[in-house]
Here is the input.
Amino acid sequence: MTPIEPDAALLDTVRSAERVVVFSGAGMSAESGVPTFRDALTGLWARFDPTELATPQAWERDPDLVWAWYEWRAAMVRRVAPNAGHRAVADWARSAQLTVVTQNVDDLHERAGSAVAAHLHGSLYAPRCGGCTRPAELDDDRFDGMAEPAERMTPPSCVHCGAAVRPGAVWFGEPLPDAAWATAADAAENCDLMVVVGTSGVVYPAAELPLRAVRAGATVVEVNPQRTDLTDAVTHSWRVTAAEALPILAAVR
Ligand code: BV8
Ligand code: ZN
Here is the structure.
């Protein structure tokens, strides 16, 4: 794979960047084999639109369907590995003040060695009680036999109050966790470089973060093989993938 060189101006900015934010979306995990939100859902789920499954209404209407979808996704992520992009982000943090803000609900940044400052849309691995909101302690080994997705699975009941345990994701129509949003907004407004990786930039308020970074005077580079809703607002839009671009950016010194 011939490396695609970024332009000299971008390399200079990366070289001199003191405070870096990496803001990632589903495209960050695509090269690990995790389907992006916009990809047609695979197999059993192909007939569903994620924006119709990732809602409180879907949960109310059919908790067993929604619970099975998240369990299948959590099991599938467990079977893949971080890619060169995730590893480069973790390496980069060793030589710069780097903050990872992600929209992703997978744990691939963490498994590559990054400390994630903000999971804006929650996590596949933080199920909680839909009633008393306490975190649910569920064994990860429940994913072991889950090669094939089941269409429906009854969610476990909370050991404290008996209500159904729900996925730890933030659904459409739900507010983002206050602490995650505050950390992400502060990082966006106080960085000198933001790398926006693998997001279509259509979901708000997360998609506002690159715009806040631009307004605060940061250089914002988008890493995405496609144009997005953010392309016209960022400083550089680089038509490469996460696993191609991030090792190059992390190696600039
Ligand atoms: C809220 C967790 C308020 C769940 C997710 C009308 C207009 C504007 C906004 C709204 C509106 N109606 C409603 C809203 C608000 C809504 C919203 O923005 N809707 C959109 C659809 C218009 N937002 C919300 O509801 C948010 N909450 O507003 O609350 C509020 C306040 C107080 C009180 C009550 C309520 C909550 C949104 C969170 C939803 N949850 N995820 C789950 O995962 O199941 S969102 C989910 O989709 C992702 O987390 C991500 O954020 C989003 C988009 O996905 P992306 O990550 O961008 O991935 P996508 O597939 O779209 O794109 C992949 C990109 O990668 C592509 O560009 C592709 O080219 C690129 N790519 C592919 N391969 C690679 C690559 N790039 C690099 N390398 C590669 N190899
Ligand atoms: Zn409970």
User: Anything to note?
Assistant: Residues 35-79+128-166 form a domain with the SIR2/SIRT2 'Small Domain' fold (CATH 3.30.1600.10). Strands lie at 19-24, 97-102, 116-119, 128-129, 165-166, 193-197, 219-223, 236-238. The first strand starts at residue 19 and ends at 24.
